[in-house]
Design goal:
It contains 6 helices and 11 strands. It is of the alpha/beta class and 224 residues long. It has a single domain, classed as Vaccinia Virus protein VP39 (Rossmann fold, 3-Layer(aba) Sandwich). Strands 7-6-5-8-9-11-10 form a 7-stranded mixed sheet. Strand 2 and strand 3 form a beta hairpin.
């Protein structure tokens, strides 16, 4: 998942250790960095994921991965679709809160996916499938399978042009179950308002939440 509150945030006082470093043709420089109890995935200077090495997920309560889950009512055994894997922070968070019946993850960068499985625990998740493709290429298969999800998080098109991002959002909306939710991570000053307006034609409740005061991350949550 892509945390876009500026570039990579400062770590504080604990010493930093680079656990792994590589390059990707799609994402540029990729680093896995430990500092204190946190393991972070950084790609191209952007913070994609944080996981607690101790397993204490309460530390991420103010981050957008957690706030996106807080914004919706999930069943005890939800089905979920994640567009943009990063290090899988939100998959791990969801698994810590519930017992997902099934999770589908779409990630375009195979290097990110390999790093997430090796260093962020995604390889050990049960009932999860990983599709390595752009979301536009993955959608026809998901649509043909007639799958419906209780929770869909789209975190891959944060600052893409509206001409690309909005059609994807509307196609994802058709995959939401009857009582499910669609959550999008968008840049507050770009097309967040336009996207929310389009979703209001399909959902009875659409809300917008700025993650941090003065920050750029805007969560759009569509339900019912």
């Amino acid at each position: 998942m892509r945390a876009r509150e500026g570039r990579e945030r400062a770590f504080g006082g604990a010493p930093r250790r680079v656990v792994f470093e590589t390059r990707s043709a799609l994402s540029g420089s990729i680093r896995v960095v430990d500092r204190g109890d946190e393991r972070r995935l950084i790609a191209g200077g952007d913070l994609l994921s944080i996981i607690p090495l101790s397993g204490d997920w309460s530390r991420l309560g103010r981050e957008y991965w957690s706030r996106a889950l807080d914004a919706v009512a999930l069943p005890r055994r939800p089905t979920a679709l994640f567009v943009g894997a990063g290090g899988g922070t939100q998959l791990r968070l969801l698994s810590s809160r519930a017992r997902p019946r099934w999770m589908t993850v779409v990630e375009r960068d195979p290097v990110i996916l390999q790093v997430a499985r090796r260093y962020f625990g995604l390889g050990g998740l049960e009932h999860a499938e990983f599709l390595c493709a752009d979301i536009e290429r993955a959608l026809p298969g998901l649509e043909a399978a007639r799958r419906r999800y209780d929770f869909i998080m789209e975190d891959a098109m944060y600052s893409d042009p509206v001409e690309r991002a909005l059609p994807v959002a509307l196609r994802l909306a058709a995959l939401v179950g009857r009582r499910g939710a669609l959550v999008l991570n968008r840049h507050a000053r770009r097309h967040a308002a336009q996207t929310a307006a389009a979703l209001r034609e399909r959902f009875s409740r659409v809300t917008m939440h700025r993650v941090r005061r003065g920050g750029e991350n805007m969560l759009i949550c569509a339900t019912h």
